[in-house]
Amino acid sequence: MLKKCQEEFYNLDNTSLNSKLNNNVDAKEEKETLRKIKIGNINLIADLFMNNFIPIKIIQDCVEFLFKNSDEDKILYLCELTKKTYSKIEAEDNETLDKIYKKLESIL
Q: Which residues 6+ apart lie within 8 Å of 71 measured at CB?
């Protein structure tokens, strides 16, 4: 299950999820459905981390991945991940939080 979650996360840009959707859905609805699926993946990762099923290293890898070629959606995913994991990251690794804040400041 963790491997599948990791594959889905690293395929954020991949349109392979389109095959899971109904082909009759218009582009706007399809994009929103894909966004919900991706947010669901982010929430699962955050929940696994918060319940000590995955280490901080996984969160750090996710943050680095979201920084690369970041677009509006990846920033949204980064914010969602940070929102759900903030308290535990703050307790374990302030350096990761500093990276996130600096990245978000550079965008604004």
A: none
Query: Where do the domains of the chain lie?
Result: 2-11+21-107
Q: Is the dihedral of CA 60, 58, 84, 88 positive or negative?
A: negative
If one counts every other C-beta atom within 10 angstroms of the C-beta of residue 46, the result is: 21
* Lowest-confidence pick of 15-19, 59-63, 74-78: 15-19
d(CA 100, CA 104): 6
Report pLDDT digits (tens) over 35-69.
Answer: 888 899 999 999 999 999 999 999 988 888 888 87
Q: Give the closest residue to 20 by CA, choosing from 7, 39, 5, 33.
A: 33
**pTM here?**
0.77
* 35 contact partners, CB below 8 Å, separation of at least 6: 73, 76
> In angstroms, rounded to a whole number, what is the distance separating the alpha carbons of residues 71 and 57?
23
Tell me how far apart the alpha carbons of residues 34 and 71 are, in angstroms, rounded to a whole number. 15
